[in-house]
Amino acid sequence: MLKKLSFTDEVVDIVTPTNEVLSAKYKRSFAYITVRDRLPITITNVIDLLVRDKDKIIDEFGELAKEEIKEVIGQFSKLKNELQTNKPFQLLTSDGSDVPAWNAYYERETDREGEVPRWFRTSWIYAECYMYRRIRETFELSSSLKTFDPFRKSKEEAFHSSVDAMAILGDYVLQQLQAHGVKRFPSSEMKKVALWGNQYDLSRPVGSELPEENDPLKNIQLLSDHVLVDESEKMWSVLEAAAKHRESITIDIVADNAGYELFADMCLADTLCAFSLATKIRFYVKTMPWFISDTMEKDFHWMRHKLLEFSNEYPNLADLANRWEEHLNLKKWYIEVGDFWTLPHVYSEMKTADHQLYDKLSDATLIIFKGDLNYRKLLGETNWAPTESFSNALQGFHPAPLVTLRTIKADLICGLKPGQAEATAAKSEKWLITGDYALIQFDG
Question: Which ranges carry the Damage-control phosphatase ARMT1-like metal-binding domain (predicted)?
């Protein structure tokens, strides 16, 4: 049972006002539901995992882990209590390379808010990122569990549950790759594959369900009329123009979820390379376990190796894994890691918070941002009017032409036509949080 909150006087019973930053202080917002319900459940699930898999963890991490598991569980119980009673945030104390940036952000927000940030008073993005960073810090401060990923098991289970869907998509992609000298790039299908792959998210809102049909190619056809904005032609135009002039084409993919979505992203990347619409692709991934299902470098490699194990049952999956290994070896593909992606900064702050990353992105021909968390950061975690232009909502963030592929799972949006938000809400009251609708938005 969820703990009764004792600070309801600090939460206002309204929706998030237009142009305000998303925060759990607005009771009729998805931020409030997330901080009140979903974040404590995430902590509880980590505790349950440690209890349930204690013996396996000790086998993997050594006898010292036996006592440290108890200590870690105690720390997570404390963290959960801090959240549910709206306690002030704390400075981080581990030796992580990102700790100075985190603590500087804490000091900045304390000055800006006029008090130490708290769960139900600060921005949603800060509160949510802070929880995942505190989970990571708890393991960092241990001796034996420093590298433990509390979400590894759920990511691996999600991978195995989607292998059949990967096999169907893999067959289709290999057919396209074999025809690359004859056919045009299958832009319509590949954009949908990459877009709707974002539905496979382990932190999806409770009550939202994936389509029962496990054929991703059928699913994307069923969902075609759920794409509220589709500016993909502008994206392809950028790449085709660069290819026409025989320019070197660098595509940056800021990844979201591991498992099926990452597989779909790699299929898109492979197809772009085969059709000469990319000469170099850089995948930006997280440095630590993040938002349950976000991609880390180890998830990238783990999936490739797992696909090779299906050489008998699904030989096409092994063929793709071998192709992708070759792309990495030939330096066509790169895996990029960096602290910025797991900081609470919105992207309009990147230029000052991490100018080296901003400059690197500026070298790209096109940047593809995947998923809802990236979208929230692109929009500055702000409740824009639905008709506000995507370009304005970026608040000056434009290192290079960029596109966002997002299935909608949070109550912020922009770039819609007048009346479009209202018409969609009439069809589905919870359209902003179920992941059943999507956007492809471009800023050139």
Answer: 34-422
How far does Cα 14 stand from its chain's mean position? 28
Q: Which residues contact 55 (CB under 8 A, 6 or more apart)?
A: none
Contact (CB, 8 A) for 194 and 265? yes
Q: Which residues of the chain have pLDDT under 50?
A: 1-6, 204-212
Quote the pLDDT of residue 9. 55
What pLDDT, in 10s, does the model give residues 10-31? 789 999 999 999 999 999 999 9
Q: What is the pLDDT of residue 211?
A: 47
Contact between 267 and 320 (Cβ < 8 Å): yes
Which CATH number among 3.30.1050.10, 3.30.70.590, 3.40.50.10880, 2.40.50.1020 corresponds to the domain 153-443?
A: 3.40.50.10880
